[in-house]
């Protein structure tokens, strides 16, 4: 029953626990496999890495972002991370900072991000969507309302950079309860002891950050990434996706050898940026992103062949 | 120093780093192991007589503490009400209270074996204090400073450079303190193994708000002893300016459980609270949110995007505030009041002309509130203002504002 493992963490005794809180968990949470679980099942069966693409909601404008999003699955994206723009993205490099600023300047909000997912779901009910961003816009939107609407529009998981395990009560537990996956980042600074804390309540997949650094920086030691993925896998049944610093099909092929998923973000939003004419979307914006996704996803997919 | 009682307002933070709902540890996972280590190192240091005696020695011989409590006789007479005292943090080495915190944190960084220091700065006072302790202890130092602030605080930029620090101007956003803090956090995430982030205010993820407060509470403890010596009783009111709020929490902390002492924090009211994006009064004009590692009052729009603060003072134009202040606001123990740019300018000039003390523009915000309070109070009442820094850095920009010709 892989589905079981996918939604639960493994605690230090090797027992399956959803979370150590006082409330007993509801059976329905356990049984519900998400689109994320099913997608990784599929890529595992195909003996290949999943290609996870990150784009920023509303970048460079809502209509173009819709077109980018709509074409991602056909271009080779197995999982989509959709950035929720934030004014102060502390963990992001310049490329994603600028993507967020473009989106905000074009009037993007969290409400519109959810609406964007709803439109996508009308034509695609298979490709998992993970919303990624920072906590404050969600906190201001209202956690309860956000979680409920996210489920309703067809969001599958959340990655919230500034919510470590210590703050699980804020959003992680309500999200799990509602049936969303809560995907946590693990980093080179996460030692084995800490890893137990991080994996507890993590579901969907584990996102390994390839370096100590911000998005779009250089991976200093590729061999160490492989070792780290193996180390994490010895602690969990969840798929492990690797992100930060993957920019070329060759990078994707290398990382895809041992990771269950390869995440690319900065390179894609940079493609948006270079396609712009006088700051506005051009006829090529969506297709440029899709071409890059094709090339990168081919890299990830041929990694083990 | 007074004892902590049951129902004390001085019991925070709890184990999760919370003051009521405020505070916490809202940071990326990369930083979590480090801030947990930092907390451990801090707890150990607090109990280590060697650490405490080194702090004492540095405070006495390097910083020049205790700083004087000064009776502002002419301003008292001019305003015609309560007696006004200044706690002279402007006479602390480097020219502000910022050094108090830097001394504590640099000793901690050394204990933790860190070999590089980073800091953010707004007005440059914290940057200078950090560059100073790094020079004193021989550690390389990088200070992140908004490009706008680099322009308006040039003397401090030069001081930092002379002290051996690298000053990195940050052009993102409006190029002020918030952007400098984002960039410092990005550097920290990247160089987490070697680098200690010396945060300058009582904000950020736990344990920083507690730690910075503890290193600054010497201000209030000295005030207590000095006013007892001078007047034989506690003051009726305490006033300090608030950006992030480190001089204020240091001033207030020892008096939180003294109901007879009214406490006021002066926020940057900029062009006035009715001007959106025209002020930096996060507690009178903002609402709770999460930024830079903690939940606190923030200037933000209805979608939770952070708004750039404005203040004539580069040290106060931060859109947030330390979480303990947010707690003290909601518990109504401290009264937070906005002070406009113009009121601060008036106070700046009044202090300079009547007392022969050029105050930092930040401290002038506190003084402006004192100038409102004092005339309303009887002559036998006592107000203590934390004069948090000296204004040498501001003379050029104030001169420009007032249209003074050379």
From TrEMBL, chain A:
The keyword Lyase applies. InterPro entries: Aldolase_TIM (IPR013785), RibuloseP-bd_barrel (IPR011060), Trp_synthase_alpha_AS (IPR018204), Trp_synthase_suA (IPR002028). Gene3D superfamilies: Aldolase class I. It comes from the Bacteria. Coiled coil: none annotated. GO terms for molecular function: tryptophan synthase activity. Pfam families: Trp_syntA. Pathway: Amino-acid biosynthesis; L-tryptophan biosynthesis; L-tryptophan from chorismate: step 5/5. Its EC number is 4.2.1.20. Keywords: Amino-acid biosynthesis, Aromatic amino acid biosynthesis, Lyase, Tryptophan biosynthesis. It is an enzyme of class 4 (lyase). The active site is at 81 (proton acceptor), 92 (proton acceptor). SUPFAM superfamilies: Ribulose-phoshate binding barrel. It catalyses: (1S,2R)-1-C-(indol-3-yl)glycerol 3-phosphate + L-serine = D-glyceraldehyde 3-phosphate + L-tryptophan + H2O. Tetramer of two alpha and two beta chains. The alpha subunit is responsible for the aldol cleavage of indoleglycerol phosphate to indole and glyceraldehyde 3-phosphate. Belongs to the TrpA family. This is Tryptophan synthase alpha chain. The lineage of its organism: Bacteria, Pseudomonadati, Pseudomonadota, Alphaproteobacteria, Hyphomicrobiales.
From TrEMBL, chain B:
Keywords: Amino-acid biosynthesis, Aromatic amino acid biosynthesis, Lyase, Pyridoxal phosphate, Tryptophan biosynthesis. HAMAP family: Trp_synth_beta. Belongs to the TrpB family. The gene is trpB. PROSITE patterns: TRP_SYNTHASE_BETA (PS00168). Pathway: Amino-acid biosynthesis; L-tryptophan biosynthesis; L-tryptophan from chorismate: step 5/5. Gene3D superfamilies: 3.40.50.1100. One of its GO terms (cellular component) is cytoplasm. PANTHER family: TRYPTOPHAN SYNTHASE (PTHR48077:SF3), TRYPTOPHAN SYNTHASE-RELATED (PTHR48077). InterPro entries: Trp_synth_b_CS, Trp_synth_beta, Trp_synth_beta/beta-like, TrpB-like_PALP, TrpB-like_PALP_sf. Its cofactor is pyridoxal 5'-phosphate. It comes from Pelagibacterium lentulum. The keyword Secreted does not apply. The beta subunit is responsible for the synthesis of L-tryptophan from indole and L-serine. Residues 64-389 form the Tryptophan synthase beta chain-like PALP domain. It catalyses: (1S,2R)-1-C-(indol-3-yl)glycerol 3-phosphate + L-serine = D-glyceraldehyde 3-phosphate + L-tryptophan + H2O. It comes from the Bacteria. Pfam families: PALP. CDD domains: Trp-synth_B. GO terms for molecular function: tryptophan synthase activity. This is Tryptophan synthase beta chain. Its EC number is 4.2.1.20. Tetramer of two alpha and two beta chains.
């Amino acid at each position: 029953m892989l589905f079981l493992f996918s939604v639960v963490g493994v605690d230090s005794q090797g027992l399956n626990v959803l979370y150590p809180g006082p409330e007993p968990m509801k059976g329905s949470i356990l049984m519900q496999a998400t689109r994320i679980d099913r997608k990784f099942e599929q890529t595992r069966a195909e003996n290949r890495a999943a290609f996870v693409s990150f784009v920023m909601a509303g970048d460079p404008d809502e209509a173009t972002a819709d077109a980018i999003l709509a074409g991602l699955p056909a271009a080779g994206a197995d999982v989509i991370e959709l950035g929720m723009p934030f004014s102060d993205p502390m963990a992001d490099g310049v490329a994603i900072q600028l993507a967020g600023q473009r989106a905000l300047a074009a009037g993007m909000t969290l409400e519109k991000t959810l609406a964007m997912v709803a439109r996508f779901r009308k034509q695609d009910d298979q490709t998992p969507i993970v919303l990624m961003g920072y906590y404050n816009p969600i906190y201001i939107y209202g956690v309860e309302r956000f979680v409920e609407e996210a489920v309703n529009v067809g969001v599958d998981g959340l990655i919230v950079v500034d919510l470590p395990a210590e703050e699980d009560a804020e959003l992680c537990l309500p999200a799990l309860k509602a049936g969303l996956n809560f995907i946590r980042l693990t980093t080179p600074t996460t030692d084995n002891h800490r890893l137990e804390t991080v994996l507890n309540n993590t579901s969907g997949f584990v996102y390994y950050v390839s370096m100590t650094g911000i998005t779009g920086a250089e991976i200093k030691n590729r061999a160490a990434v492989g070792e780290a993925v193996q180390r994490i896998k010895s602690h969990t049944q969840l798929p492990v996706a690797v992100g930060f610093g993957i920019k070329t099909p060759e990078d994707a092929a290398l990382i895809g050898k041992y990771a269950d998923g390869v995440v690319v973000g900065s390179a894609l939003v940079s493609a948006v940026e270079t396609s712009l004419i006088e700051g506005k979307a051009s006829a090529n914006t969506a297709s440029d992103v899709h071409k890059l996704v094709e090339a990168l996803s081919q890299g990830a997919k041929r990694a083990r062949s | 120093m007074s004892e902590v009682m049951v129902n004390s307002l001085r019991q925070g933070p709890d184990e999760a780093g919370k003051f009521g709902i405020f505070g916490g540890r809202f940071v990326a996972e990369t930083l979590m192991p480090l801030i947990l280590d930092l907390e451990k190192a801090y707890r150990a240091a607090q109990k280590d007589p060697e650490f405490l005696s080194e702090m004492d020695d540095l405070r006495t011989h390097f910083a020049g503490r205790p700083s004087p409590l000064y009776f502002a006789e002419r301003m008292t007479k001019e305003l015609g009400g309560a007696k006004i005292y200044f706690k002279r943090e402007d006479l602390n080495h480097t020219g502000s209270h910022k050094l108090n915190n830097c001394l504590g944190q640099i000793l901690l960084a050394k204990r933790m074996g860190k070999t590089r220091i980073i800091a953010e700065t707004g007005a440059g006072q914290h940057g200078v204090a950090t560059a100073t302790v790094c020079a004193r202890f021989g550690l390389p130092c990088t200070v992140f400073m908004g490009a706008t602030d680099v322009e308006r605080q040039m003397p401090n930029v030069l001081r930092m450079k002379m002290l051996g620090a690298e000053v990195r101007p940050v052009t993102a956003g409006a190029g002020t303190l918030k952007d400098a803090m984002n960039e410092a956090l990005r550097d920290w995430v990247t160089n987490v193994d070697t680098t200690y982030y010396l945060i300058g205010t009582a904000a950020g993820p736990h344990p920083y708000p507690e730690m910075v407060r503890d290193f600054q509470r010497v201000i209030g403890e000295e005030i207590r002893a000095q006013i007892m010596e001078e007047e034989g009783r506690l003051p009726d009111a305490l006033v300090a300016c608030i950006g992030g709020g480190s001089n204020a929490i240091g001033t207030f902390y020892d008096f939180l459980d003294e109901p007879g002492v009214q406490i006021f924090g002066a926020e940057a009211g900029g062009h006035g609270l009715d001007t959106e994006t025209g002020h930096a009064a996060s507690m009178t004009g903002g609402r709770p949110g999460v930024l830079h590692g903690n939940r606190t009052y923030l200037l933000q729009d209805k979608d939770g995007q952070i708004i750039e603060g404005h203040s004539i003072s580069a040290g106060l134009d931060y859109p947030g505030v330390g979480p303990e202040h947010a707690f003290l606001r909601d518990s109504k123990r401290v009264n937070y009041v906005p002070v406009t740019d113009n009121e601060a300018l008036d106070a700046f000039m009044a202090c300079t002309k009547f007392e022969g003390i050029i105050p930092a523009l930040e401290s002038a915000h506190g003084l402006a509130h004192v100038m409102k309070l004092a005339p309303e109070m009887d002559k036998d009442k006592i107000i203590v203002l934390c004069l948090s820094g000296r204004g040498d850095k501001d003379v050029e920009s104030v001169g420009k504002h007032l249209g003074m010709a050379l």
